[in-house]
Amino acid sequence: MTGTESLYGPIAAILAMAIATFLTRTAGFWLMAHVPLTVRVRRMLEALPGSIVAATVLPIIVKSGLPAMLAIAAAAALMVARRNEFLAVAVGVAVAAGSRALGL
Amino acid sequence: MQDSAIIAPRWTLTGIIEGMRASLVVLPSLAMFAAGFGAVAAQKGLTLFEATMMSAVVYAGVSQFVAMEGWTGQFTLAGLATITAITMIVNLRFVLLGGALRPWLGPLPAWQVYPSLFFLSDAGWLMAMRYRAEGGNDAGYFLGTGLARWTAWIIATVPGYLAGAAVADPHRFGLDMIMPAFFSALLVPLWRGPRRALSWLIAGLVAVTLAQLTSGWWFIVIGALAGSIAGGWIDDRD
Predict the structure, then answer these.
(1) CB A24 within 8 A of CB B95
(2) Whole-prediction pTM value?
(3) Residues of B (11-50) whose Cβ lies below 8 Å from A
(4) Residue pLDDT, tens place only, B121-131
(5) Sign of CA dihedral A82, A86, A89, A91
(6) Least CB-CB distance to A21: which of B58, B114, B219?
């Protein structure tokens, strides 16, 4: 039983994710033909991406402590200054590795 | 919604190529994002096939990263239902993007529009909307931006995976910070002033509180929904 689950489980999960994602990609186009989105719903959907990021990252910072906090702060600062995701992530990772090497 | 007076968009190869070419500038950062996903997937125990397949059929970076946060590789039926619900909620923002395409692509037959919506992404959508605002009316452009990004997304997952699998102690090298650093970088262009960011703060605080009580994905989703609902009640004036 566990053998079957470990073999097919991840594939089933990936397919489920694919179907779920396709539904969200098509739902708005379909819905707009039937009901217009209200301002409130629109605002809620606009607030969603940032909220997902905050809800994912903040618990990681709380759990991982000071090195994570420094890494995130460095990544965000670099992004503000240079608008370059690659540089932001590279510096964030380097700061985390460096501060851990220092035993923070 | 009356679309009858609007001229239906055309589909041309030229439009597709134009959309692909316009996407070239954003491909390097997209490739880094996909490579980051590949690295995290390797550390979470996915096979190379599973990681690449996820990039190919899901093709939605934020939800792929969130899925990795609680990934154990073992799925019961309840677990499958959970990952389905979470993926759907994380990708709900696509509803807004898809809805905005209705006035433009609405006159086209459904069998042409729905398959091309598979390629809907934040940045590709933004480019297509700009193209449309400038008077463009070739739906191939939208498809082209999607095809270029999708291809880069799949390909770049592979070297990221191989790099991630080669590192024995990801924590020591800070590789566990790839996802949080990427996510934080994503927040910067989303910034619309402190009033709007209040909903992010609410999302973060709810998630931190729930993370003490639950594990897996739910604290992310409930936190995000709390922020989203708060955002619905925060006015635009700022």
Answers:
(1) yes
(2) 0.83
(3) 28-29, 32-33, 36, 46-47, 50
(4) 988 888 898 89
(5) negative
(6) B58
